[in-house]
Design a protein that fits this description.
The protein is α/β, with parallel strands linked by helices. It contains four helices and four strands, in the order αβαβαβαβ.
């Protein structure tokens, strides 16, 4: 489902999906949208946030490990994946596919 920035606040007031991909041409709008997802996740009990910076040589198994690990302080976490490029490559696409259906309640916020 694709959401416009103007529709995001209403959507997040109703529901929080397991995965969000935040992209755009305007860096400020991308930042604001990611902030809105983070705030909605906090309001729903996602009290721990893990940030993974994806660059050249990123180990995509680390993403799968983080998504599958339990939080020490709570059962809901926000896993944020920051992509340096809009193209994660073949390994990145496969790593993303393995991680987008987590067994435990969790939200992933991906920013390009």
């Amino acid at each position: 489902m694709q959401l416009r920035q103007s529709d995001l606040a209403g959507h997040l007031a109703r529901t929080l999906l397991p995965v969000y991909l935040v992209t755009g041409d305007e860096p400020l709008q991308v930042l604001e949208a990611a902030d809105a997802v983070r705030q909605a996740a906090r309001e729903r009990g996602h009290d721990t946030r893990e940030v993974l910076e994806v660059g050249k040589g990123f180990d995509w198994d680390q993403l799968a490990a983080e998504a599958g690990s339990l939080s020490l302080f709570g059962d809901r976490r926000l896993l944020e994946l920051r992509l340096a490029s809009a193209r994660p490559g073949t390994d990145g696409s496969e790593g993303d596919r393995r991680t987008t259906a987590p067994a435990r309640p969790r939200t992933s916020c991906c920013s390009c």
